[in-house]
């Protein structure tokens, strides 16, 4: 302050100086010039230092009129001094050159004296104003801090005791942290730095550590940074707080308006009369208005009349309104959550697009309902308890499982009540400490993972119980009746043990290889058969390893490659039979059988003995077939060799019996008759043998044509008339009226019927009846020959059609045993069938079926 008021003291000192006379013009003028120069330099220094300006700036809020007057006077003073200096400088320059200069200097002295007097008076006025402004500036406690441009040293004046103890150094004011809390101190530091660096002004309201409220104002004035700190009290503090609140309210309002403008939801405000007072751009777009003014003037509404009326009633009754309503925006109908509240004398509303939430909610409801329906169809009992341990959901299987009353369950009982009721009905497992058991069960409400347990109920059932904690709180119980499953598991384990024991006792070697080619199962027979180690097989060796072990007994690479491919292949999985002739002379019958799980089973059976027997049987069969062929060849040869002499004998016999050859004695005639009968029988036998040999060779050809059934029976019957007469046997013939004819070889059919009748007559007792009948079916003609002979034993039925199978027992005529063989051969050549029904002691029935359509028979044969 000493430097600030130095100019005023200088002026007061000048007031006491003596007045200059005219005699000492030069000295006086020099003194005036020196005095004016010093005065101007002092004023210029004061202006340059900015202290007057600083004082004026500090006083502006308190006395703006006095400060303005002071500044004007000071400026006039400075302007006047500059003019006089210029005049005096010119007078001194001319004083040495002319008298005129002296006169002018005299005049200048007189004028300067007057101006000096006027200047002293003006300086006095300025001193008074400066004193008044200083008194006004420090009329209240405050601190002024100034930083000249480019100087970091601060000049501090004022009452620093308002923030520091009285004996403290003024420079400690700059340490804001000593008298301000940390946050305000940091704020003050940043504000002062911004003021000094960039000239940014500030105005802060601070609260000291002692609870005093201060106002700090920073300004850049005259190239200096000035900070003024003063205490707020009374009205001024209230005004400051009001200004702060107003600014905060203004900022908050601006922020809210910016948020409303940026929000994608329609937001509006209405006055007391229901008129629109504010609408954001989203509301304007939703109502298809050009601007808010357009929407206000046209009274465009977002909601329809019914929804708007409901909102007005809600605001009137409850001061708020919330509803999910459909709104058409941009030609699209969407769902919005509309919320409105009364604010002051009006109301504010917002509409938030909830279409997606509504769709998700609907989908969630449908999904929950679908889940409920699905859970109702499950055989497992499901019960869901909420976070309060009350029953929130159950399915019908749960109710039926525990036989609980639906009314009781629909009342949402808690978990403990359900367990207590089940315990009272003796449906829960018997527990020595039921309370501890229930507490352990209820730990599921605090668990983070599902737990599984098995309950064995008093009624013999076994339940699988799964308790799963729900994410939103509560527990879901899942009950499954596993009584049958456990029983099946026990049976399965028993069956596996039995199968294992059975497999181990098998003589057949069995090994199962998995889809990875490793041995999974084997029995002791397999180990013995291939001379392997049981311990090595338990290590699940690969099929290639097993192959290497078995090479010493069987090393056929083709077979082993087939086995490897069958074990490791994923395609063409079919049974593959194997037959292995091993080096030790044994023979194994094997089978590669794919299993359903991707594994492959190898089975080996030692068939060395069977193979030897089969080889012996095969050799014997070949020998028998060769002997049979020799028999056939012999029969053919003998038959052809016998036909020529028989034909000659028969011819000569007929020639001798002819009367033209001469008479014969009775004895000769008798012998000749025996010869004729014997040769005829032998010729018939030979013909039969030749026919059978021809049929057996496949060279027999049928001469097909119409076969008259009645005529055929008649021709067959003629051949046995002498036997019928000799044995007094009656022949009974039954022919259906519609029998007609069929296509066949008539000669062979007659031969068939003749052999059947001859066989029946041969086995029928005297004075009996032999029957023959014929009937037509849809596709065949059936001949039936019956007799009342002794019948055919069961062990002979399969042999009666064999060659040379003759039964003399019960027959009066011994034959070669070729008759029935011919019958079967001829009937089968026609495509028919022969069957024999016989009961011992009651006779025999032979039935022959001849097909009526020989064309179909030929097509089938071809």
TrEMBL record:
<dbReference type="InterPro" id="IPR003594">
    <property type="entry name" value="HATPase_dom"/>
</dbReference>
<dbReference type="GO" id="GO:0009927">
    <property type="term" value="F:histidine phosphotransfer kinase activity"/>
</dbReference>
<dbReference type="InterPro" id="IPR003661">
    <property type="entry name" value="HisK_dim/P_dom"/>
</dbReference>
<protein>
    <recommendedName>
        <fullName>histidine kinase</fullName>
        <ecNumber>2.7.13.3</ecNumber>
    </recommendedName>
</protein>
<dbReference type="InterPro" id="IPR005467">
    <property type="entry name" value="His_kinase_dom"/>
</dbReference>
<dbReference type="InterPro" id="IPR004358">
    <property type="entry name" value="Sig_transdc_His_kin-like_C"/>
</dbReference>
<keyword id="KW-0812">Transmembrane</keyword>
<dbReference type="GO" id="GO:0000160">
    <property type="term" value="P:phosphorelay signal transduction system"/>
</dbReference>
<keyword id="KW-1133">Transmembrane helix</keyword>
<dbReference type="InterPro" id="IPR000014">
    <property type="entry name" value="PAS"/>
</dbReference>
<dbReference type="GO" id="GO:0000155">
    <property type="term" value="F:phosphorelay sensor kinase activity"/>
</dbReference>
<keyword id="KW-0472">Membrane</keyword>
<dbReference type="InterPro" id="IPR036890">
    <property type="entry name" value="HATPase_C_sf"/>
</dbReference>
<dbReference type="Pfam" id="PF02518">
    <property type="entry name" value="HATPase_c"/>
</dbReference>
<keyword id="KW-0597">Phosphoprotein</keyword>
<dbReference type="InterPro" id="IPR036097">
    <property type="entry name" value="HisK_dim/P_sf"/>
</dbReference>
<dbReference type="InterPro" id="IPR035965">
    <property type="entry name" value="PAS-like_dom_sf"/>
</dbReference>
<keyword id="KW-0808">Transferase</keyword>
<dbReference type="Pfam" id="PF12860">
    <property type="entry name" value="PAS_7"/>
</dbReference>
<dbReference type="Pfam" id="PF00512">
    <property type="entry name" value="HisKA"/>
</dbReference>
<feature type="transmembrane region" description="Helical">
    <location>
        <begin position="85"/>
        <end position="105"/>
    </location>
</feature>
<feature type="domain" description="Histidine kinase">
    <location>
        <begin position="637"/>
        <end position="854"/>
    </location>
</feature>
<dbReference type="GO" id="GO:0005886">
    <property type="term" value="C:plasma membrane"/>
</dbReference>
<keyword id="KW-0418">Kinase</keyword>
